[in-house]
Write a structure and sequence with these properties.
The structure holds two protein chains of two kinds.
Chain A lengths: L7 E7 L4 E6 L4 H13 L11 E3 L19 E3 L5 E3 L9 H5 L5 E3 L1
Antiparallel strand pairs in A: 1-2, 3-6, 4-5
Chain B lengths: L12 H10 L4 E3 H11 L1 H7 L2 E3 L2 E4 L4 E5 L11 E4 L2 E3 L7 E5 L3 E2 L3 E5 H9 L4 E6 L10 E6 L6 E9 L6 E3 L6 E3 L2 E3 L5 E4 L18 E2 L2 E4 L2 E8 L12 E6 L8 E6 L3 E9 L1 E3 L3 H7 L7 E6 L9 E6 H5 L2 E4 L2 E7 L3 H16 L10 E2 L15
Parallel strand pairs in B: 1-2, 13-24, 16-27
Antiparallel strand pairs in B: 2-23, 3-22, 4-7, 4-12, 5-6, 5-10, 8-9, 10-11, 12-20, 14-15, 17-28, 18-19, 18-22, 19-20, 21-22, 24-25, 26-27
Classes of the chains: A alpha+beta, B alpha+beta.
Chain lengths: 108, 383
């Protein structure tokens, strides 16, 4: 609210003693620093998630089970049915990791 | 009078095989034949093309393998046995076992099951065998623990009771929670659609009336050669839910086309690669082989309803599903397959190549698959 930047809460775990959440902040670096600073001023520890998903194409069968469950279409199928991953779109929800029947997708 | 099912009016199996041996056979994959028939007409295509090859690669839960381990010294008649902690059926003599795709590890649960054991076997990996027995005078041994590979077995025979569905339903989810099913992950409120089946490459759809497929039909199975062993369980051809039972020697198959798999929170299964050559023996078979994706429709069922009679949200053709989007209640919804079209095409191409290289001859079935069957539910009755 301080910065006026709308954030998307992807995951949240709250207890009476503490809480943590994963948020998506869809802004450029300058405004991102504002948002991080606003959280830190309130005593929230902020850590940037740099992990991403990886696809083992030796295991991948190009079945497509990972494609439609991806809520942001970061995983798609090309015209030859091979799987393509766009890291920029990925929100790290990890739905694809469980959706792959042969464990070809990992979150590192 | 309607032509008898399976009549060889255009060409016989002997004529086709003679052409194959000479290198003269005209062979197309089903995709190529669909296009050729569209451009030249099904009748012209019927006269010019001898064989149409098909392929499918999807999760086929009703799959498994019979294994014979040979006899130990002293011998054992196993009462129970486990392969990499996955229970295998042992109610067969002393050392025969059946490992089913959906049996799951007693230690690793959903992560490893019979399908994975089969993939490991075909990959020549070592498998741990554990067995117990009540012991008899002729089979005194009461327990066994050993390791083996597929090369140690007397027989490893893939026998799959229900494979290669003619076509299959698509799936969506009208509830407000995520569902985990054998059709993959289904997001709430019709968040996505998944579908299965090879469409215009589907072996059993390309011989819709079952004029060429039956007991003894030679096929591509798991990367090697297999045979149709008759109709599959739940065979229901009147609504294009035909199935086949298949068998083949696991020792000549490859793990590329036999993949152990897990559907999250559903269980383990086996992805099976299967392809059937369709001899164009009459014009009716040609018309069936020429059916394109836009004429193969399926129902998008709401898997949020836990019943064998799930409601259909709408119908869609495989052509529409393959665009990656369908419309439900006015909203565009992402759609993706859970079976691999890439591998289905490869299988059809491989079968075409085997025929062109004269290493694969067609077989006339001993008995055609039935074109009519009742499909019954399991009723709950007091015994």
């Amino acid at each position: 609210m301080k910065t006026g930047v709308p954030i998307n809460i992807l995951e949240a775990q709250m207890t009476p003693e503490s809480g943590q959440m994963i948020v998506d902040v869809p802004v450029d670096n300058r405004r991102l620093k504002e948002v991080v600073s606003a959280f830190e001023t309130e005593g929230v520890r902020v850590q940037e998630i740099v992990s991403t998903i990886t696809i083992d194409f030796d295991k991948c069968m190009s079945c497509g089970a990972c494609v439609s469950p991806c809520p942001v279409s970061a995983i798609t199928q090309k015209t030859d049915w091979d799987i393509e991953y766009d890291e920029k779109k990925c929100i790290r929800c990890k739905v694809c990791v469980d959706a792959c029947p042969v464990g070809a997708i990992a979150f590192l | 009078m309607a032509e008898e099912r399976g009549s060889e009016k255009l060409r016989s199996y002997e004529q086709i095989n003679a052409k194959i041996k000479k290198g003269d056979a005209v062979v197309m994959t089903a995709e190529e034949f669909v296009e050729y028939a569209r451009d030249h007409g099904a009748s012209v295509a019927a006269h010019e093309v001898d064989v149409v090859t098909t392929g499918t690669f999807g999760a086929m839960c009703s799959s498994g393998a019979f294994l014979n381990f040979g006899h130990s010294d002293p011998p054992i008649k196993m009462a129970h046995c486990w392969l990499n902690d996955v229970p295998a059926y042992r109610g067969l003599a002393a050392v025969d076992a059946y490992i089913g795709a959906t049996a799951m590890s007693e230690k690793e649960g959903f992560e490893y099951g019979g399908g994975h054991v089969i993939e490991d076997l075909v990959s020549h990996r070592q498998i741990e065998l554990r067995g117990d027995a009540y012991g008899t005078d002729c089979y005194p041994r009461k327990s066994i623990e050993t390791a083996f590979t597929i090369d140690d077995l007397n027989q490893a025979i893939l026998v799959n009771p229900r494979n290669a569905y003619q076509h299959y339903n698509a799936a969506t989810n009208g509830t407000d929670r995520v569902l985990y099913t054998y059709m993959g992950t289904l997001l709430p409120k019709y968040g996505n659609v998944t579908y299965s089946g090879a469409g215009e490459l589907s072996p059993l759809y390309k011989d819709k009336c079952f004029e060429t497929i039956g007991l003894g039909t030679r096929i591509f199975l798991g990367g090697g050669i297999g045979y149709v062993a008759g109709e599959g369980t739940q065979h229901f051809p009147q609504q294009q839910f035909g199935t086949i039972m298949v068998r083949g020697d696991l020792k000549q198959m490859t793990s590329k086309y036999l993949r152990g798999a897990t559907f999250h929170k559903y269980g383990t299964t086996l992805y099976v690669g299967l392809g059937i050559p369709i001899p164009i023996i009459n014009e009716r078979v040609a018309e069936s082989a020429a059916i394109p994706d836009d004429q193969i429709a399926t129902n998008i069922l709401d898997y949020g309803v836990p019943s064998p009679s799930r409601p259909s949200v709408r119908t869609a053709s495989y052509k529409e599903l393959k665009t990656g989007k369908v419309t439900i209640n006015g909203q565009e919804v992402r759609a993706s397959p859970v079976s691999s079209f890439k591998y289905a095409k490869e299988i059809a191409q491989t079968l075409k190549r085997w025929i062109e290289e004269k290493v694969f001859l067609l077989t006339r079935p001993v008995e055609l698959i039935a074109d009519h069957r009742e499909f019954r539910p399991l009723r709950i009755r007091k015994p």
